[in-house]
Amino acid sequence: MKFSETFTSKDSTKLDKETLLILRWIALSGQFFTIILIKFIFNFKLELLLCLSIIAIGVLSNFYLKFKIKEKQLDNYTSTIFLFYDLLQLAILLYLTGGITNPFTILLIIPAIVSSTFLTLRSTINLSIITILALVIITIDYYPLPHTGDLHFHVPNYYLYGIPTAVIVGLVFLTYFGARFGSESRKRTEALNKLELILAKEHELESIGERAAAAAHSLGTPLSTIAVIAKELQKEIGDNPKYSKDTNLLLSQTKRCSEILKNISQDKLEEDNFLSNVNIKDLLNEIVRSFTEISQKKLSLIFEKNELNPKIQRTLEITYGLRNFIGNAVKYSNSFVDIILESNEKITEIKICDDGPGFSEDIFNVLGEPYIRSENKIINSKSGLGLGTFIGKTLLERMKATVQFSRYSKTNGAMVIIKWNTKDLISI
Length: 428
What we know:
With 428 residues, the chain is α+β, with helices and mostly antiparallel strands. It folds into 3 domains: 3-196, no CATH class; 206-275; 278-427, Heat Shock Protein 90, CATH 3.30.565.10. The protein is built from 12 helices and 11 strands. The protein has a 5-stranded mixed beta sheet with strand order 4-6-7-11-10. Strand 6 (336-343) and strand 7 form a beta hairpin. Helix 5 runs parallel beside helix 7 and helix 6 (121-140) packs antiparallel against helix 7. The radius of gyration is 34 Å and the shape is elongated.
């Protein structure tokens, strides 16, 4: 992700109220005990009552957040308001306790960092600007914080102005990091939600198939009864033209319904077989066959006879993940796709190779991420290299596989390597 991408994102996530409450209690407690320590242990001269009053207002604001704000997830506006108040409160305390010479000045950047992770770009920029203004003010003017006795804390000018400069640099760096982290986190969450949706739909289809098969078995007996009665009626009616046409139609439609139900039952048996154990070569053959029926490109399954052909559990994750990568290879290949299966007692490896353009050099390191960029173009789910690859990789990794991307030496096209420990694959 480039710098411009990070700071052009307009999306945000909601800030958890409980998390913000805990962070604010920690900050307020730290402020209170620090003020007490400085005043009564180190005997520093400061505006104690004023400082404690500011902290007390912060405590009241946290009670307001806890009891008056009903939402468990705070929207962008509400979160910004509370973060702004926290920034303002800390700035005032720093103003009263030594200004820029106070070592706790660095804490001013926290609200902007929190905003960069969870909130919108506008909120982050506004809080960053206010933070910089606060730093400038407490550098120019502040209540000095003298030591006890005749000693006074003196800071050289070069150091005095170096502190806010360093804090501002830290603010920019950490804000950018927070924005990038937040953006990547939101994209990954979105991708995982889509993945869960796909799996939910697959399981729903399974459920529909089971209900259809149950209905087929249940309807079999009534249809058989109807057919028997229709045949008896046909015998009674004989060649009577007035009714024979109707009885013949009844028998033909009953037969048709029986055939439909038979097909449903057969499909269910196939589905049951689909969910049972299967040799990995047979699984690959079925997947390859499904693509050869819709594509003119040549798909070859390469398998040595002396290799193992382990029987595995045919899970949705493995099937969908393999179909995803084979489908991508078919889509981007020029004329053919090689699926190479190698299996022994230790390792089972599937290589999906094509004669297409291959992977760009600039995306090798980010392949498998939910959204990737190549040649100044964002690659999303529609391309198959963004979200599609992420979903396929995630599904297979759930099934104890490792997924790698490379170039096919034979054609310089793309190659996806899916590898299991054979024992792990069999035990799934």
